[in-house]
Amino acid sequence: MLNNITIEVRLTKDAEYSQVGDKSVTKISGACQRDYKKQGEDKPGADFFQIDKWNLSKEFVEKQLKKGKRIIVQGRVEDNTWEDDNGKKHYDKTINAEKLYLAEYVTDSEAAEE
After folding, report:
1. 11, 26 in Cβ contact below 8 A?
2. Strands 41-54 vs 89-102: parallel, antiparallel or unpaired
3. Are 31 and 12 in contact (CB under 8 A)?
4. pTM assigned to the model
5. How far is Cα 90 from Cα 82, in angstroms, rounded to an integer?
6. Are the beta carbons of 93 and 78 closer than 8 angstroms?
7. Measured distance CA(30)–CA(36) in Å, rounded
8. Which among 14, 46, 52 has a CA at the least distance from the CA of 31?
9. Residues near 110 by Cβ (< 8 Å), separated by ≥ 6?
10. What is d(CA 45, CA 1) in angstroms, rounded to the nearest whole number?
11. Which fold has domain 5-113?
């Protein structure tokens, strides 16, 4: 079986960088546009994704992965299951990114402003 996803998302908030032992993980929240029909009319919608990317540099995350930026991610979808303090089970899906690309061109003047 194949578990592979390539998706372009716009960050819904600044990415969160954290150190886990000798590795780092970046938590990314993103949205992707999806159109749907309502009463025969096209309506805009969005799907939201949680993305984990391991071993990015802190400098890259802080400078490039800001709210509103567009990125392209290649990776796989993973199921996560956990139980809270009240014994209730929770489920979600996360994209584990193997590759991450910036989807916007940065000019020299924009780079100088940051």
Report:
1. no
2. parallel
3. yes
4. 0.81
5. 5
6. yes
7. 19
8. 46
9. none
10. 30
11. OB fold (Dihydrolipoamide Acetyltransferase, E2P) (2.40.50)
What pLDDT score was predicted for residue 107?
A: 59
Selection from 13, 104, 1 nearest residue 66 by Cα: 13
What is d(CA 42, CA 33) in angstroms, rounded to the nearest whole number? 13
**pLDDT exceeds 70 at position 113:** no
**How far apart (Å, rounded) are the C-alpha atoms in residues 16 and 61?**
8
* Structure tokens that stand for 38 in this block: 């309502």
- Mean pLDDT rounded to a whole number for the chain: 91
- The CA-based angle 75-17-67, given to 5 degrees, is 80
| pLDDT for the residue 40 | 86
Give me the amino acid identity at 27: K
Contact criterion met (CB below 8 Å) for 25 and 52: yes
Gap between the Cα atoms of 27 and 58, Å rounded: 12
Q: Residues with Cβ < 8 Å from 28, sequence gap 6 or more?
A: 9, 11, 15, 16, 50, 51, 52, 53, 65, 71, 73, 97
Listed in sequence order, the residues at least 6 apart from 111 whose beta carbon sits closer than 8 Å to its beta carbon are none
